[in-house]
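Could you help me review a protein record that somebody else here produced? Do not assume that whoever made the record got everything right. The record follows directly below this note.
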Amino acid sequence: MSASKKIAVVTGANRGLGFETCRQLAKQEIQVILTSRDEAKGNAAVEKLQAEGLDVLYRSLDVTNADSVEHLAQFIRNQFGKLDILVNNAGIAKDFLDPSEGSVLKTKVSTLQETIETNLYGPLLLCQALIPLMKINNYGRVVNVSSGAGQLADMATGFPAYRISKTALNALTRIVANELEDTNILVNAVCPGWVRTDMGGPNAPRSLEQGVDTIVWLATLADGGPTSGFFRDRQPIDW
């Protein structure tokens, strides 16, 4: 690995948007660390990308487990001594699967707690553990994969746990970006749109390539690029 090669971590990356993000970043000669909770699926995903000649390696990661996050940080510290890109993609949408929880008046608090643990606390733990590795060279790009479902400007009913978790992730994005505003660490949120993934389903209008385009753009922003923004199709959208 050349000393100048950028290092990226993508969470929840054994399939869907995370997997395609790994592929597109690796195609830009970035060393990608593909992470997932399921080791068998994660290793299979890495083997597929390596077979395409891409520089991708696997690390097991449970974003809800602080020890697991710290083990990842220690590995990066020992192996590379820095980190350049963090894509917080891992997320769950339990209330997509249970129509009985479509109303916020019927949502179980346990569903909300579990969703927030993955969709908010996970990215927070990753930021706390990995942004110090970006500060070493005063370079970093943090991309939080959010959703238009979390926009207060366009808030509706349905999927309340998912919506609330993504609104909170948007708040986290702005807080972290503000704290880092005097650095070259740019922090943004992205709505990939409705994409044909396991979560999005087969009827979604967007391909994986369309879904990850803005994620990859934000992950590779030039110095002086936007920070503390929320983007869809490379354009800012309302919070």
About this structure: The mean pLDDT is 95. The helical segments are 16-26, 39-51, 66-79, 94-97, 109-135, 160-179, 208-219.
